[in-house]
Fold this sequence. Notes:
Strand content: 5-15%
Number of helices: 7
Number of strands: 5
Distance between the termini: 44 Å
Strand order of the largest sheet: 1-2-5
Structural class: mainly alpha
Helix content: 40-55%
Order of helices and strands: EEEEEHHHHHHH
Largest sheet: 3 strands, antiparallel
Amino acid sequence: MRRCDLDLAAGCVRVRAAFAKRRASGSAVTLGPPKSKAARRVVGVPRAIIPDLREHLAAFAGPDPGALVFATSSGTPLRRRNFNRAAGWSYAVAAIGVPGLHFHDLRHTGNTFAVASGAGLKDLMARMGHDSERAAMIYQHEARGADAAITNAIDAHIDAERSADDDGLAGALVPAG
Length: 177
C-alpha cells in the first residue's frame, strides 16, 4: 500500500495493487494488479486505528505520495520472509500476551468481526476482496452469541408489532416471497 492509497480523513484505503512475485532470484519487487478483480476495492478503516496510522505515517513512511506505508527502514517492501524480523513481530505478540499469533490471523479476526456486524455475504465479499462465495464462507463460522442476538431481534420485532397492532400478531405474519 502506498501513502496515496490511504485517505485517513475519509477513513478508507484504496486497494489497487499487490506485490508481484519475483521473476528471478535477486530481481526487484514490483507492484502489479491484485489477484482478482474483486481485490480492487475501497475498504473502510476503523476510527479506532486512525490515530495509530497517522503516528505510523509520521514516523515510518516517506512524505512522497508513492511511498510505501509499510516498508523496511531503507524503504523497500516488507516481504513475508523478512517481516517478522523487520517488524519485531515476536516481541510485539509476546508483549500483548499472544505468542504464536500470525500476521494473517489479524485478517481472519477482522473478517470475523465484519461477519458479526450482520452484513450480507455480498457486502462481506466486497470488503474482503473475494470473488467467490466459498472463500468468504470461511469466516461464516458461528459467532459467539449469534443465536441469542437473532432470538432477541425476533422478539423485538414481535414486540413492536404487538404494540402497533391491537389485533396482536396479525401484522407480524408476513407471507414468504
